[in-house]
Design a protein that fits this description.
four-stranded mixed sheet, mainly beta, four-stranded antiparallel sheet, 0% helix, Immunoglobulin-like
Amino acid sequence: MPGHRRIHAGQRDGLDVHRATATLVGTSLYAGFTASALKTGNAGQTSISGVVLDNQEHPLPNVTVRVDGTTREAQTDTQGQFKITEVPVGAVRLIADGSTTSAEGEWPTLAFNLVTIAGADNPLSAPIYLVKLDTVNAKTVGDQDVTLTLPDVPGFALEVKRGSVTFPDGKKTGKLSVTPVNASKIPMAPPNGMQPQFIVTIQPVGAKFDPPARLTLPNVDGHKPGA
């Protein structure tokens, strides 16, 4: 197909060890991407490993990391490291449950999608970053209209209508928190190549809004009206 070319990876194993770039003819514009390669083996030896840190790069011990829908899990050690053995092969959903950490404060639960290679230890390409939740400004939602704001972030608002929230346990009322996240240490890549400078986590994970909650964000990226 015109404009397409198949690229064959080299012989090295590891994360992000292969890099390809493409330059638009006649310009200085280019795009690049990296690829990882792992050796396959016995499916029963498949594992997932990684490290869980806070936004100041400190390890978080006793965070429970599990493969969703299975009994396979592990807890992080004093260095924040974990390894889950005998995990399924293929597409899995990894859950990092910060509620079990022994670190002071309340911490979120986050979910990640990844694809495991049979028989390999599948290391995460980056640390899992958890941010300590702002429980001071959390509010009870469900029984009335509520607007959550952030005192240190003028212009931010999350407007939650009465009866619109369903929490993960099925309840219609509960505590909702909003916490800013360090943009350089976000726990997962934003979709569609976006690189916003202002990011928050709304907890608990899995809370559903119907009708959707109205979200107002400060224009820290300096976008023009209507952008």
